[in-house]
Amino acid sequence: DWTAASFIETEIDEIRRRVGSEKVLCALSGGVDSTVVATLIHKAIGDQLECIFVDNGLLRKHEYENVLTTYREHLKLPVRGVNASDLFLKNLSGVIDPEEKRKIIGNTFIEVFEDAISAENNFKFLAQGTLYPDVIESVSFKGPSATIKSHHNVGGLPEKMKMELIEPVRELFKDEVRNVGRELGIPESFIGRHPFPGPGLGIRVIGELTKERLDLLREADDIFISSLRAHGLYDDVWQALAVLLPVQSVGVMGDERTYEFTVALRAVTSVDGMTADWAHLPYEFLSEVSNRIINEVRGINRTVYDISSKPPSTIEWE
Ligand code: XMP
């Protein structure tokens, strides 16, 4: 029978056997999956592991600082922080197509990585937090369009960087990864975090990305997520997010006419992200979040709530 404890034991043996005395590089994303992978590998081989956490400018409000602190102080992981926001935004400027965005974000990660390790590339292995659903949706889904969305964290990296991949949770679903994380002693507040896509807010600002639009979204998202926590609703939904639409509409504020952006709020219930239903959040809650966003975030004058299920919609808008 599968248990988190036996999984950990087997994987630690396997990692030690495969890695020997070589060095492993791990890309941390701030999410549960890569954190579990890094913690597991650190447990197996200690300081033969080195982690890199990149600020791609597409993270949520204060996320870079907060996550880096958790990695270093709570999990004692050897992490190097790299701020590459400007490079990502430059490479993404003018790009509208979602798949193009994913490709550019993936390639920019490679660029930043290569840069960070170029002088001393003595890493034989690269560890990634690829999950089973990532693998099937990206690689083997043979639906009408062959691939739904190319998850940027599958493939791409190794060939260019000449490292062997280590993907210990490749056969697990999210809830199994969380159990492994708990067993490894990762704090519950971190384990319970909603999934967050690798391309981050880059696929939640619909259409063209600018620093200004990303900042607007960060504020709206922060209000939504912190309100979910404050009302004890965060754990009732599988994932919650805000999306900035490139649509301006007319509003009125005091005596002034406004012409500002719209934010779509989305919260879903799901088991593994493969299918999802929109979360039936209380009206009073939605009303409070909407009022706060519109009153507190200058540049947004309208919010809508997404009531689509997956399929046929997807969780993200891009
Ligand atoms: P969709 O939008 O396909 O999302 O219903 C299913 C789950 O996958 C996440 N997602 C991604 N994760 N890279 C990732 O690492 C991506 O490109 C990507 N696209 C979607 C999404 O947030 C949801 O949890």
Notes on the structure:
The protein has 318 residues and is α/β, with parallel strands linked by helices. The protein folds into two domains: 4-191, HUPs (Rossmann fold); 204-305, GMP Synthetase, Chain A, domain 3 (2-Layer Sandwich). It is built from eleven helices and nine strands. It has helices spanning 4-19, 32-45, 63-74, 85-92, 98-117, 132-140, 157-161, 174-183, 188-191, 211-230, 283-296; strands at 23-28, 49-55, 79-83, 123-127, 164-166, 239-253, 256-270, 276-278, 300-305. Strands 3-2-1-4-5 form a five-stranded parallel β-sheet, with helices on both faces. Strands 6, 7, 8 and 9 form a four-stranded mixed β-sheet that branches. Strand 1, helix 2 (32-45) and strand 2 (49-55) form a beta-alpha-beta unit. The two termini are 38 Å apart. Residues 139-148 have low confidence and may be disordered. The structure holds xanthosine-5'-monophosphate. The site of xanthosine-5'-monophosphate has 16 residues, from loops. Residues 102, 148-149, 151-153, 195, 197-199, 239, 273, 310, 314-316 line the site of xanthosine-5'-monophosphate.
> Secondary-structure element order, as H and E?
HEHEHEHHEHHEHHHEEEHE
Our count of helices gives 11
Bound molecules: xanthosine-5'-monophosphate
Please describe the biggest sheet, giving its number of strands, its sense, and whether it closes into a barrel: 5 strands, parallel
Output the CATH homologous superfamily of the largest domain: HUPs
Helix content: 40-55%
| Integer-rounded radius of gyration | 20 Å
